[in-house]
Amino acid sequence: MNKKVEYQHIGKMPYAKAWDYQTELFDAIVQTKLENRRRTDRGEDALPTKNYLLFVEHPHVYTLGKSGKEEHLLLDKEGLEREHVEFFKINRGGDITYHGPGQIVGYPILDLDNFFTDIHKYLRLLEEAVILTLKDYGIKAGRIDGLTGVWIGEEGDPNPRKICALGVKTSRWVTMHGFAFNVNANLDYFGNIVPCGISDKAVTSMQNELGKELPMNEVEEVVKKHLATLFEMEIFENKQN
Length: 241
Known about the structure:
three-stranded mixed beta sheet, 5 helices, about 30% helix, transferase, cytoplasm, aa-tRNA-synth_II/BPL/LPL, Octanoyltransferase
C-alpha cells in the first residue's frame, strides 16, 4: 500500500484544462492497476500505484454532474456570455455547482486500495478535513443528514449555509474530482444556479462568516494538513510552473 501522495499546487487554471489533466493522471493509475492484474497472473510483483492531491483555482464556471438537472442552471447561453462564465456537463456525481476565484478546489486522485475501499468513508473524510479547518478558524461546521458537503448550521438550524460542496467519480477504486471550499468566493455567482439542486438552503464562505478576507495559501496549508492526518498520507510537493 503506497500512502505517498504527490501534492501539486496548480494555482489558476481553466476548468477544461484541469479536467483533462485530472483524467490523464486518473487513467494512468487505472492502467497501472490493469497491468498489475496481468503481472499477478504471471506471478510477477505488482507495481506501486501513484496518488495525487491537486489544489486549483478556476475562472468562473458552472459544472453539472451526472445526476443533475440542466434547469438548475438559471442562465441561458447569452446569460453565460454576459456573466463571463463557462458551463460543463461532467462525469462526477452530484448536481450543479460553481467554481471560481477565492475557492479552494481540491482534486484527490487516489488509488483507494492504498488507503481503504469505502466510498462513504472517503467522502466523510473529505468533509472532515474541511470541518476541522473551519474549527481552526473558530467556525463551527458540520453535516446535514442526507446531504453531502459541509454546512454552517447543522440539522434544525433555521439558516443552514453550505460552505463546501463535494462531487467525485471512482473507477476501480481510483478517485477524481473532489471538493470546492468557499474561502473568499464571490457568492453572487451562486444566484445563477440552484446549488447542488437544493433550493431552500443558502451558500456561504469563510470571508462571509468571519467578515474578512482570508489568505488562500494559509487556508490551503491547513486543509492539506488535515487531509494528511485523516488519510494517513505521506505528502510530498511537486510545484507546477
